[in-house]
Amino acid sequence: MRYDLIIIGAGPGGLTAGIYARTRMMKTLILDAAEIGGQLVSLYPDKAVQNYPGYERIQARKLSDKMYAQAESMDCEIRDREKVNEIRGGNDELVVITDKGQYHTSSVIVATGMGMFKPKKMGCKGEEEFENKGLCYILPPKEDLIGKRVVVFGGGNSAIEMALIADSVAETTIVHRRNEFRCDESNTMALNASNIRSIMSSELVSVNGDDAVRSVTLKKGDETFDVEADLVVILIGISADLEDLKRWDLELTKDGLLKVDDAMCTSRNGIFACGDVIDYDGKYKQIITACGEAATASNSAYKFVKKPYWA
Ligand SMILES: Cc1cc2nc3c(=O)[nH]c(=O)nc-3n(C[C@H](O)[C@H](O)[C@H](O)COP(=O)(O)OP(=O)(O)OC[C@H]3O[C@@H](n4cnc5c(N)ncnc54)[C@H](O)[C@@H]3O)c2cc1C
Question: Is residue 203 in some structural domain?
């Protein structure tokens, strides 16, 4: 069997590309190495997304579930936990090789986001020892935070948004190594209006405890002091793992992301791309931009495969 289109990655970009492809009746398979939903489910499932049009506020997991349901209802074939390792072939047919099998297709859209991303680590004393014993890199579900003393590390939107979630059920502190947060103004306002304690210009020296986390030691200038904690959440960014792209014989930017033209075509015939995995001047990594680029990528794949008279 041969697909018209195989989409690699089922985040907002990949799912939207699938929805658009099915409006053109393209036989479409979407593959994801992890859970369907991309960063929305793996990094911030409980966060309220406030900038996706049509929803004043929607929990990230719910938004992703809606995209997933829409793609499924339009008969996209969707497989989770199947990692793409290679894309072989040339102009007439591409073969997508995964860790479970291989699929023949006329076109491919790469929507792999930040790849098999991992959270950035602090590299401080106690970090490894207490991982999963009260130290984590993704905020646990709200129910697990009730009554705890939560200390969040980071100064960007993610750290503040997660601290705001924690603040609704737990005593929460946010620690940032600079004297100013790097976030949207709406988050600064929400933080100022909350009960969150902010500790600025401070570095994490160590995470301390016995069988679980009990405190963190911070350093501010020459002063060293302890803050009691039951849960330490480190949200200082994610490291992209873009190794897969190197094997796919596609032209990359100096940062290892994919180069595309205005129609979302990569340097390989029949392979298109969208979302966080691509870069161009003015690129803004957001759900809505991933979805917009996906519509273009899907349209380009349609023209490439079906060659309509008007294209
Ligand atoms: C903490 C945080 C909060 C954010 N909040 C917002 C917000 O409020 N609003 C907003 O608009 N944006 C927000 N963003 C940004 C937004 O999540 C991303 O821009 C968006 O997820 C990009 O979508 P994508 O489909 O390109 O990639 P992703 O969501 O990264 O999905 C890519 C998928 O590809 C899969 N994959 C990778 N490699 C392979 C492979 N080899 N084979 C198969 N599958 C593979 C991955 O498993 C993943 O599921 C936030 C980001 C973070 C980190």
Answer: yes
